[in-house]
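G., the chain you wanted modeled:
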Amino acid sequence: MSESPISDLYQDLALAEFYDLAPRPRPDFAYCTTLAANARSVLDLGCGTGVLAAALAAGRQVTAVDPAAAMLRLAQTRADAEAVTWVQADATTLRLGRRFDLIVLTGHSFQVFLTRAAQRAVLATIAAHLAPAGRFVFDTRNPAFAGAKERNRAETEHQITHPVHGPVDAWNISHYDPASGILSFSNSYRITATGETRSASARILYTPREVLEGLIREAGLSVEHWLGNWSGAAFAPRSREIIPVGRLA
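Predicted structure as tokens:
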């Protein structure tokens, strides 16, 4: 969902199959579930392997979109996959011809849009699909957060267990360019039994809140709440997250 090709981290099934294995908290689930309480329809942009889309599908119509065929292939193997309409498409150009009560873009998927043009395009997609009384929410990491953005193998290496391959060593390496706001990273996986290593790199963009606020306004959207985390805390300059919750302007 960016102007550059989709990273093999998401497009290559040999890498995508490791995506959900590493345990990581998903506090967005609880918040989005609450936000969806009165929604009859939900659009999940950048659904990945479909965990959130499937969780929201009970009692409502959910359409889940991702540009990566490998991610959607994994999503469609879920036991409850039939409850979701899966669409392979680019969120910058998507036009489904319908509107939704809730649009979510979580998992920091907004950061894969590496240019202002791409960011404007995905915000236009949100505006084009949002019902008059609908709401949207997405998350992006705060560039002003004090936590380290650069990591090496020694800091990140850990072991996960794959249902087919068994024990797997996983690590990531990242480099941040403060001038451009782009973080370049690679994720690697080494299968213990065979010694085979699979690796791919990708890039994400950090956007300051003041820039994001202007882009959202240009798209014809209005923010009701700026959150600093998925627990619902108000945004502060050093918050870890920037999470706008809003509606059509």
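The chain has two domains: 8-143+207-248, 153-205.

Shout if anything looks off.
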